[in-house]
Specification:
Elements: H1 14-35, H2 40-68, H3 73-97, H4 102-130
Length: 138
């Protein structure tokens, strides 16, 4: 079931929400490819696009955290790094061993995206918005 981008996934910071909307669209593209029974190469390509965009997004968030002196930077960065490690490991299983773990990947991605948005990124957005810290994602 695709993720629906709506206000329940918004954290209230335009730059973060714009990035998250794009991440959700990439997740939905991956889910669609899996359910259409696309080849492993297409699935790996889609996961790689998701990983690349996630890295760009994480870099923008991390720069905003540093510029704003976000007090939970270290723990938030650990979450980002852990996500990328797990995603890379799962993508390697598909690419190198040609195993179909698409459903496992879907569950991991969907769970992580929703959980991360609703907890760690909501906390960051609250800090940036409520603290009147004028930091944009760049």
């Amino acid at each position: 079931m695709p993720l629906v981008w709506d206000e329940t996934l918004c954290v209230g910071h335009k730059g973060i929400d714009d990035d998250h909307e794009h991440l959700v669209a990439l997740y939905n593209r991956f889910e669609e490819a899996v359910h259409r029974g696309e080849s492993g190469a297409i699935i790996v390509e889609t996961v790689c696009a998701l990983a690349e965009y996630s890295m760009s997004h994480f870099t923008r968030e991390e720069h905003a955290m540093i510029r704003s002196r976000y007090p939970r930077y270290d723990e938030h960065k650990v979450l980002h790094d852990g996500f990328l490690e797990q995603l890379t490991a799962l993508a390697n299983v598909v690419e190198q061993h040609n195993e179909d773990i698409s459903e496992e990947l879907l569950g991991f991605l969907k769970g992580w995206i929703v959980e991360h948005l609703m907890s760690a990124d909501q906390d960051l957005s609250d800090y940036l918005c409520e603290g009147k810290v004028a930091v944009a994602l760049a």
